[in-house]
Amino acid sequence: MRVLFIALEQSGRQIIKSILDDNFFKINKNQIFTFGMDEDYLKFDDLTNIKITPIMGFVDIVCNLKYLFDLRIKIKEIIDINSFTHIFFVDSFDFSKFYLQKFKSNKIKYCQIVGPSVFIWKSSKANFINRNFDRIFSIFDIEKGYYKSDIYNYIGHPLKNKIYYSKKSNEINNIGFFLGSRKQEIYKNIFIIKKLLLNLKNYNDLSFNFFVTKEFHDFIKNYFRESSNIKIHLNNNSYYKKISKLDFAFACSGTVHLELCFSNIPHIIFYKANIINFLIFKLFVRSKYISLVNIFNNKEIVKEFIQNDFTETNLLNFFMNLKLNKDKLFNYRKNMFYGVESSNFENFRSNIITDYLEKFS
Predict the structure, then answer these.
(1) Confidence grade of residue 29 (pLDDT, cut at 50, 70, 90)
(2) What is the number of other CB atoms lying within 10 angstroms of the CB of residue 171?
(3) How far apart are CA 328 and CA 13, in angstroms?
(4) Backbone region of residue 344 per phi and psi (left: phi > 0; alpha: psi in -120 to 50; beta: other values)
(5) Fewest 10 Å CB contacts: which of 12, 39, 106, 129?
(6) Phi–psi pair at 115, nearest 5 degrees
(7) Taking a C-beta distance cutoff of 8 angstroms, is the pair 257, 291 a contact?
């Protein structure tokens, strides 16, 4: 057994860390390798030999075709040199497919951790996994009907085991901001969020907290250097404990939505995509919502401001309505809690992955 875990997005890196915490991997450390992990994650040998560029949407793919082809070749070279027996692609299914269409080997067992959300996308993505993967380790039970029973495993959600649950509060004082993990997201979002902060600066009871990856720390710090009531936090080992201290949050759509839901933090979701990406998204996605709790409940439990609705005025008005009305804030948090409960998220079980690997160790 010789295993490689590949992560090309921040969400995938967090999942890998949850998986590799299992004692099985510590015992078999010399046989476990990663690709795409943070520089400060030194528990296992990381073989990244190319700068990882987060990509999202059709336009981004077209603009980064050379990078994607180079990345595919680099990973192929690493796999060949190290004679891996198992490859685990974590999230980023479109790249998994892109790789296997060119370089699939019958000598390697391929596994996908986190499926391509086939419950809202085209089911043809599940068909590709059924034909080409040895295992699909899903974090959503709703996907079970899309995959062959002999390759499907439900492992629960990795975030459920990491979250610190927040105590209920009837006041909003400590506010979090999550601008996204990709450069294009942060550059689109930061201007509107700055205008929102200008409208909130006279509220002396409010403190503002930005949660950022190391890559964007200096950029965001310099962007808000004139604001004295802003704290900037890295997404490090104390990240989940820090977000549990928040009373409210403004968040770019993504993994952070579930982090806040599981932590019992009321929040607003915002997102603005390139118009071409958005039109393609609307064409293929079978939901009018982008947040998972809203999708699973088929109603807007967590408020979403998408595309042209994402303005500082809309954010401010909705926020102030909750801040100044304790009953509305209480009901907003309560509805979010029950929305999460009815979505049937379960605790993460890494032992399902280790049980599979133990057969080869």
Answers:
(1) very high
(2) 11
(3) 36
(4) left
(5) 106
(6) -75, 175
(7) yes
Q: What is the largest CA-CA distance in the chain?
A: 63
Amino acid at residue number 127: N
Higher pLDDT, 304 or 183: 304
Q: What is the β-pairing status of strands 135-138 and 174-178?
A: unpaired
d(CA 246, CA 33): 36
Query: Is 357's pLDDT higher than 90?
Result: yes
How far is 27 from 111, CA to CA, in rounded Å? 21
Can you tell me the distance from the alpha carbon of 6 to that of 20, in angstroms, rounded to the nearest whole number? 12
> Does the CA dihedral 48-49-54-57 come out positive or negative?
negative
Q: How far is 1 from 3, CA to CA, in rounded Å?
A: 6
Which residue in the block uniquely carries the two structure tokens 């009953």?
327
CA-angle at 347, arms to 256 and 121, nearest 5°: 55
**Rounded mean pLDDT of 204-216?**
88
Question: Is the pLDDT score of 274 beyond 80?
Answer: no
3-state secondary structure at position 63: helix
Instruction: Give the whole-angstrom CA distance, residue 244 versus residue 163.
Output: 8
Q: Which one of 48-57, 160-169, 244-253 scores highest in mean pLDDT?
A: 244-253
H/E stretch holding 82 reads helix 65-82
- Strand order across the 45-46 sheet: 45-46, 32-35, 3-7, 86-90, 109-113, 135-138, 152-154
More confident residue, 58 or 3: 3
**What are the structure tokens assigned to 63, written together?**
């603009």
Name the pLDDT band for 96 (thresholds 50, 70, 90). very high
Residue 162 is encoded by which pair of tokens? 């990491």
- Which residue in 301, 339, 288 sits closest to 120, CA to CA? 288
Contact indicator for 263, 191 with CB cutoff of 8 Å? no
- pLDDT tens, residue by residue, 46-80: 999 888 877 766 667 777 889 899 999 999 999 99
Q: Are residues 173 and 207 in contact, defined by beta-carbon separation less than 8 angstroms?
A: yes
